[in-house]
Amino acid sequence: MTIGAGAKLSDLPLREDLVGRSPYGAPQLAVPVQINTNENPFPPSEALVADLAASVAAAAVGLNRYPDRDAVQLRRELAGYLARVSGVPLLAENVWAANGSNEILQQLLQAFGGPGRTAVGFEPSYSMHPIISTGTRTTWLPAPRLADFSVDVPAALQVIREHDPDVLFVTSPNNPTGGSLELSDIRELVGAARGIVVVDEAYAEFSERPSAIALIDEFPAQVVVVRTMSKAFAFAGGRLGYLAASPAMIDALLLVRLPYHLSVLTQAAAIAALRHGDDTLGSVARLVGERKRVAAELTRMGLTVVPSDANFVLFGVFDDAPATWQRYLDEGVLLRDVGIPGYLRATIGTESDNDRFLQVSRSVLGAAR
Ligand code: PMP
């Protein structure tokens, strides 16, 4: 008998607003084709692993001391990368980093959300936006997307005027549907908002659209662009998310972040990974090519594929998506059932992952529709 098994969750004096909630729970199953969490399927290069190991070893000599609380060198490197790709001359003062972009989102909601405050997002979108909102006691107000999963900009402007959210989430490219917004549309949404606008660009490297980083100088009190090293940088296990914003926005986050939140080891590892950034990001074009191939093949099978500029595709339409998800799993292919009736999401994997996924798709199709 496990120690403490006498207490159930329902026995605990939990906050009322958390009773009955479900935790984030993408299954982690050891099957041959794991294409359910939008990771980069390519492992780090040998050169990166060697550099990272040496960097962590060097950092370990000082493990008895706390890390640089403000992660200045890492933020300088991240700013350099963003400046290169966006053409906006960002400095370390424009960038903040944390343990995954989920922690960045949590810090933003701790600073700008909270009791009596509201956050709006266009659903279906990233499931952690409402979960982190609820966790920080920010009232979550979902607004619908159009039937094709795009944002209805005039309707969105109406929602913003009506609800006046303290935090507006714009996910571009959107997870789990894959589409992105034009910069001019994001500018319009920011123009209508009073609160901050969190543009979640976790998948930006896979898209050709310009980044909302271009809007920071125009709306320095509002625009925050959230990025991650979990996807294109193939660093999901390293846990490194970051944002670009005005220096004032980062001053706000310093009020809520935990001191020394980014370990010496994380900072050293992320800096090493960034040194190999050009090499790692070489996988982006390959994954985009594969995304096009996978989308075309699924379409040829008669499936509906939502246009994506991320590293995944949402596809259907199945009479029973959960049963279809199970059928794929029985064949060793782990997809994501994101709860959109009739649809499943597949992350673009290696060429052989994708071949296997397409092969299983052909075999499950007859039974599923
Ligand atoms: N934003 C979006 C839109 C995502 O899809 C994800 C990961 N699935 C994240 C943020 C969080 O990623 P991480 O914490 O690994 O940076």
From TrEMBL:
Native source species:
Nakamurella alba
* Family, per entry: Belongs to the class-II pyridoxal-phosphate-dependent aminotransferase family. Histidinol-phosphate aminotransferase subfamily.
GO MF term set: histidinol-phosphate transaminase activity; pyridoxal phosphate binding
Q: Which PANTHER family match?
A: HISTIDINOL-PHOSPHATE AMINOTRANSFERASE (PTHR42885:SF2), HISTIDINOL-PHOSPHATE AMINOTRANSFERASE-RELATED (PTHR42885)
Pathway(s) it belongs to: Amino-acid biosynthesis; L-histidine biosynthesis; L-histidine from 5-phospho-alpha-D-ribose 1-diphosphate: step 7/9
> Per the UniProt entry, what is one GO biological process?
L-histidine biosynthetic process
Return the InterPro entries for the record: Aminotrans_II_pyridoxalP_BS, Aminotransferase_I/II_large, HisP_aminotrans, PyrdxlP-dep_Trfase, PyrdxlP-dep_Trfase_major, PyrdxlP-dep_Trfase_small
Q: What is this protein called?
A: Histidinol-phosphate aminotransferase
* Chain positions with N6-(pyridoxal phosphate)lysine modification: 231
Q: So where does this one cross the membrane?
A: none
Fetch the CDD domains from UniProt. AAT_like
The opening ranks of the lineage are:
Bacteria, Bacillati, Actinomycetota, Actinomycetes, Nakamurellales
Reactions that this protein is recorded to catalyse? L-histidinol phosphate + 2-oxoglutarate = 3-(imidazol-4-yl)-2-oxopropyl phosphate + L-glutamate
Q: Which cofactor does it need?
A: pyridoxal 5'-phosphate
Renumbered to this chain, the signal peptide range is: none
Task: Could you list this entry's UniProt keywords, alphabetically sorted.
Answer: Amino-acid biosynthesis, Aminotransferase, Histidine biosynthesis, Pyridoxal phosphate, Transferase
Domain (Aminotransferase class I/classII large): residue spans on this chain = 34-359
Keyword Chloroplast among record annotations: no
